[in-house]
Amino acid sequence: MQIMVLDKGYNAEPIHKMIRDENVISMIPVRGDNLISDMHGKYRKSMKREFDETLYHERNKTETIFSVVKRRFDSEIKSYDDTMKTKELSYRVLACNCHRMCVISLVWLMISRKPKFYSEETKFVN
Fold it and tell me: What residues are paired with 25 via a beta bridge?
């Protein structure tokens, strides 16, 4: 089962219908505090009833990753061909993950090192 999570700007009945026609569930928050009886459209009414707040907030993780990749590895795609665009984005995400693992490894190494104790010859002078 696939779920497409979008923000409030995409809350329109034709968009819900287009997504559902592809056998994908749309998860789009409803604009305003309207009652279900005041709303128009089958899918928008079902969103008002069945909207999953927890699932919707998972979207933030994806947007954060995209933001990090854009900041670190440029926001512009250089390729023209669709397959090359996909490969370029995949390599950027791979490079971002490698960078994160290196940083995590360095922090772990710094934390796990044993502290060095001074020998008896080395004394602090007040």
Answer: 3
**pLDDT tens across 36-70, in order?**
555 666 767 777 667 777 877 788 887 888 888 88
* Whether 79 contacts 85, CB under 8 Å: yes
| Coil vs helix vs strand at 119 | coil
| DSSP line for 24-91 | -EEE-PPSS---GGG--SHHHHHHHHH--HHHHHTHHHHHHHHHHHHHHH-S-----SHHHHHHHHHH
Q: What is the pLDDT of residues 4-29, one digit of tens each?
A: 888 777 777 888 788 888 888 777 77
Closest CA to 45 of 81, 13, 80, 1: 13
- DSSP annotation of 113: S
How far is the C-alpha of 74 from the C-alpha of 3, rounded, in Å? 28
Considering only CA atoms, which of 1, 82, 49 is closest in space to residue 29? 49
